[in-house]
């Protein structure tokens, strides 16, 4: 008898009751285990692994236990998924289609304990689609009901949860002033009124030793308690919570909590901030602002500073150059950078857009928040991205580190939180750093960044020449001469001599060629006129410059 390995999957949308000794997940598991036991005569055996997702919505596949289960299906460790009801697996038709693709590819299947139908028949598939349609409808209606409840509560000025902002403590459905932290908030507003720029406020705040709130998570990890960064300062200065108001999306309502800053004074500061932002945008539209100024660093930690030159026709060309080129002009700096500003800013803006729109990104940066909060933030992110210009995207950049072959991008948690309409304290800053591979066209006088999505793609000619080079080298080891190989293969000795170096390519370079990720300049024609060094590290350095 063929053995069918069965894995039980359980899920509960909310966290209510999970702390009980016997909860909904246990009940689902018992029912599934009993069903598997009833099919023992068919060879069904229950796997000991538990796949439980407590407190997670069925509207997304971004669930740890489900992802582990699907990985186990792909690796052939699971033959059958057993669920209590089909909506425990997913409430989305599109997601269910993805799960079915995984099951079909692995030769696995699933069964619902309380819903009996055969998906091998047209009627069974119709029944399944109807059940999933109702499950998705129920989820969407529930989400709308929650959104309406939150909106109505905020219109009444109630605090609807999340991490409590600096300067306040939680007080039921409202907030109360934390006088110790409120002094920091008042001082930041005073500094802005005195200096007029967030940059100068940051410098003064550091000099005065102003600190953010130290927080301890339930898992024992600690965060905060350090210097307040520029993004956080901007968020504090623009947050209506400090004027005794509650923000919901683009609307602001009178709150039921006390204000730390007088509302009229807060309004005046907003006008001043908006005027400064408008001036910055006007400068940017005239091409006088380098949007990554102060945010770019190279592999040595040296800052890249804005520079420019003019062509004979008077066209102004902007660059970002290594600071050491400015500080010690006239000296040789072979490792220094000179990057065309427009090209680099476009590439970085594209990376920001791609990163935010990536499936599961919002869930990763809001780890620990409810599924409904993540869904709302994802919708807000999509709406904002639809209208965002490159300069809007670059505002989110906190830092960019460039090294040969990779770009590390870090986004600002506070500004991102503002864009997706959540409290900054909900953002997991550790998830905002991403690495992006790129290649270089030229280094020294000028460098052009070529991101992975603009690389050459698969070069069939180069791939064939690498394969031939390995075959030729094998015959050379067997004591064949270049002349003998050329005669047998109908080629020339010169051709073999030009291509034989490809047999000694570093494995990672070969892998990039097979994946189509090699630099656009690394071609068979290039190999005809250039010698490849035998040292792999030297090869990587040379190929990266093509």
Task: Give a verbal description of the structure.
The protein has 546 residues and is an alpha/beta fold. It is 46% helix and 16% strand. The strands form six sheets. Strands 1, 2, 3, 4 and 5 form a five-stranded parallel sheet that branches. A five-stranded mixed sheet has the order 12-16-17-18-19. The chain has a three-stranded antiparallel sheet with strand order 13-14-15. It is flat, with a radius of gyration of 30 Å. The N and C termini lie far apart (60 Å). The relative contact order is 0.06.
Keywords, please?
Rossmann fold; Hect, E3 ligase catalytic domain fold; 4 domains; five-stranded parallel β-sheet; five-stranded mixed β-sheet; 21 helices; 19 strands; flat
Separation of termini? 60 Å
Number of domains: 4
Largest sheet: 5 strands, parallel
Low-pLDDT ranges = 442-446
Structural class of the secondary elements? Answer: alpha/beta
Radius of gyration, in Å, reads: 30 Å
Put simply, the count of helices is 21
Specify the overall morphology.
flat
**Strand residue percentage:** 15-25%
Short summary of the structure?
The protein has helices at residues 24-38, 64-74, 86-89, 93-106, 122-155, 179-195, 198-208, 230-238, 263-285, 323-327, 341-357, 361-365, 371-387, 390-394, 413-419, 460-477, 482-489, 493-499, 507-515, 524-529, 536-544; strands at residues 4-12, 44-46, 51-54, 80-83, 109-112, 168-171, 174-177, 215-216, 222-223, 245-248, 251-254, 296-298, 304-310, 316-322, 338-340, 397-403, 406-411, 433-440, 449-451.
